[in-house]
């Protein structure tokens, strides 16, 4: 067991990728527990909408436009948050994208796009906030990975690579910062009812210079990353409830589906069988 959060009341939380989906849900969950929340996203319209919604619920919320692939913007965002809301207690490196298909079909631009957001975006957040939390001797870092960060899947090679990296980073970071009173959790959901597929395709088109799809959804004949995983969908409130419970318990891993137990047991059995 790692470092637990005894209370969220009065804390300052930063959430990247807060314009929609899990990020917006986490922001609302933290606000409902008494946190002041800083919302960061590259989508200015979306993140402002999240801020407006939270403020209508009586929450203290600010929004910052931030591209997590740019370390300078992440540092600037952190400084802005601390100047307006105060020292950050909870840093959620949540921004993420997903494109899918065979590894052999992926271009270098595809690799850079996914790794820049999913991995380097987390790295920039960790490099920005971990030293501040360690210096203060308290706080928590939440990195969003995926079940795809725990087991490889056909058609998800890029996504797998980025999310495995986030899990490995989180595991190492948790060991390093625990002695300084800082907790780390890594969120590894399976299928969640969000728009990551739609948003990812739009961002991917802009980042790689390719035309955007004519419709927001690339088509039912092409499975999304979530459709490539077994199990049913859960809603965002279920994910956020389990995430906050894990942070209260000081848990490193945040899982969202009962089906994950069987899948991970099979992986563990394969590793055990391979050991000399």
Task: Give the secondary structure arrangement, pairings included.
Blueprint: E1 12-16, H1 21-32, E2 36-41, H2 44-56, E3 61-65, H3 71-84, E4 90-93, H4 108-136, E5 139-144, H5 157-177, E6 182-188, H6 196-208, H7 236-249, E7 253-255, H8 259-274
Parallel strand pairs: 1-2, 1-4, 2-3, 4-5, 5-6, 6-7
Helix pairs in contact: 1-7, 3-4, 4-5
Give a summary of the structure in a few sentences.
With about 280 residues, the protein is an alpha/beta fold. The protein is built from eight helices and seven strands.
Description:
- The structure is a single chain.
- The chain has 276 residues and is of the alpha/beta class.
- The chain has 8 helices and 7 strands, in the order βαβαβαβαβαβααβα.
- The chain has helices spanning 21-32, 44-56, 71-84, 108-136, 157-177, 196-208, 236-249, 259-274, and strands spanning 12-16, 36-41, 61-65, 90-93, 139-144, 182-188, 253-255.
- The longest helix has 29 residues, at 108-136.
- Residues 211-229 have low confidence and may be disordered.
Q: Tell me the number of strands.
A: 7
Chain oligomer state: single chain
What is the arithmetic mean of pLDDT? 88
Order of helices and strands: EHEHEHEHEHEHHEH
Q: For the largest sheet, list the strands in their spatial order.
A: 3-2-1-4-5-6-7
CATH third-tier fold name: Rossmann fold
**Helical content band:** 40-55%
Distance between the termini: 29 Å
Number of helices: 8
Rg to the nearest angstrom?
Answer: 18 Å
Helix and strand content put the structural class at alpha/beta
Return the domain count: 1
Q: Per CATH, which architecture?
A: 3-Layer(aba) Sandwich
């Amino acid at each position: 067991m790692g470092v637990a959060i005894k209370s969220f009341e009065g804390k300052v939380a930063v959430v990247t990728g807060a314009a929609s989906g899990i990020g917006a849900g986490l922001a609302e969950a933290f606000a409902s527990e008494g946190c002041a929340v800083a919302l960061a996203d590259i989508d200015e319209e979306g993140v402002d909408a999240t801020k407006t919604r939270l403020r209508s619920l009586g929450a203290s919320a600010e929004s910052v436009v931030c591209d997590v692939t740019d370390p300078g913007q992440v540092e600037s965002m952190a400084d802005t948050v601390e100047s307006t809301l105060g020292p950050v207690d909870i840093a959620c490196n949540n921004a993420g994208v997903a494109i899918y298909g065979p590894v052999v079909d992926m271009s270098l631009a595809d690799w850079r796009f996914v790794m820049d957001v999913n991995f380097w975006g987390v790295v920039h957040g960790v490099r920005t906030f971990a030293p501040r939390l360690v210096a203060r001797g308290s706080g928590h870092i939440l990195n969003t990975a995926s079940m795809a960060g725990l087991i490889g899947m056909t058609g998800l090679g890029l996504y797998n690579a980025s999310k495995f990296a986030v899990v490995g980073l989180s595991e190492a970071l948790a060991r390093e910062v625990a002695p300084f009173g800082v907790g780390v959790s890594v969120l590894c959901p399976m299928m969640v009812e969000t728009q990551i597929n739609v948003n990812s395709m739009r961002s991917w088109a802009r980042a790689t210079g390719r035309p955007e799809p004519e419709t927001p959804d690339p088509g039912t004949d092409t499975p999304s990353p979530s459709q490539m995983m077994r199990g049913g969908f859960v809603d965002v409130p279920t994910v956020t409830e389990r995430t906050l419970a894990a942070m209260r318990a000081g848990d490193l891993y945040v899982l969202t589906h009962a089906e994950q137990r069987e899948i991970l047991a099979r992986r563990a059995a394969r590793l055990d069988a391979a050991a000399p």
